Amino acid sequence: MLKHLSVLTLTLAMTALSGCGNLPLSTGTGAGDNTSLLGRVTHLGKDPGQDLTLGLKRYDGATFQKTGISTRSNRQGDYRFESLSPGKYQVFYDDQGEVVESADVNTVGAYVDAAVQVATVGSGSAPNVNFDVGWDLSPTIKPNGSFRPGSADRFSFSSKYGDAGAEYQILVADTNKSSVWSSAWTTSSSFGWNGNRGSETNSPTGSYSGTGSHFYQVKFRTSGTKFGGEGSYGQTKWIPFTLVR
């Protein structure tokens, strides 16, 4: 069983799949010509060991929007969406903003895979989308640990499994999960923070005097793309920590 891995609450089914069986079908139906999208989701290169609920985003000509279509994998991670209208899609997993409850962080909080094109029936094989939701983070600022700005403390962590060359960002938030500081995007996996407020900068200058309970996330994206764009991207769950000054 995966540690800390929750199931996306988009149309959550009440019973678990047993064995391999047939691949699950999607809950959505497209109009006109349609086809399928299928693949496998893994955890640190292995079967997830539980069924996961996956969603779809579709490109509307400007941005990728959630479709409300979902499907469930089997325990081996195999999944399939059917009856999709032609278009550009992204498969995603989302834990709906959960908070890490122990120091053993080994999964993403959200993952959106790179966009693929679903064509009309008869124009080619169905796109195959495989991705891994595992992330043995091994953070230096552990859940419920402390961080002192301007000291030797750093937000350091292990690279995302299966996403070689990814870029990373640290996001620090207050108890309402409102952003206080986010680092610049970089391939580094270690970030210092001076305790000031700022956005996408490693040298923030905005005044911030907050202390006590806070949260942080580690975000990643395919190098050279943008978070929320066509490349793959994602983030950890919220990790609680104490800000000490």
Structure description:
- The chain has strands at 35-42, 53-59, 64-72, 78-84, 87-94, 110-112, 116-118, 128-132, 145-147, 155-156, 167-173, 179-182, 190-191, 212-221, 233-235, 239-243.
- It is mostly beta strands and 245 residues long.
- It has two domains: 35-132, Sandwich (Immunoglobulin-like), CATH 2.60.40.10; 145-243.
- Strands 2, 3, 5, 6, 7, 9, 11, 12, 14, 15 and 16 form an eleven-stranded mixed beta sheet that branches. The protein has a three-stranded mixed beta sheet with strand order 4-1-8, with no helix packed on it.
- The model is unreliable at 3-25 and 27-33 (pLDDT under 50).
Q: How many E-type strands?
A: 16
Quaternary state reads single chain
Q: How far is the first residue's CA from the last residue's CA?
A: 39 Å
Helix content: under 10%
Q: What is the overall shape?
A: elongated
Strand content: 35-45%
Q: Any idea how many domains?
A: 2
Report the structural category.
mainly beta
| Spans of at least 5 consecutive residues with low confidence | 3-25, 27-33
List SSEs in N-to-C order: EEEEEEEEEEEEEEEE
Q: Give Rg in angstroms.
A: 19 Å
Largest sheet: 11 strands, mixed
Q: Total helix count?
A: 0
Instruction: Kindly report the average pLDDT value.
Output: 87
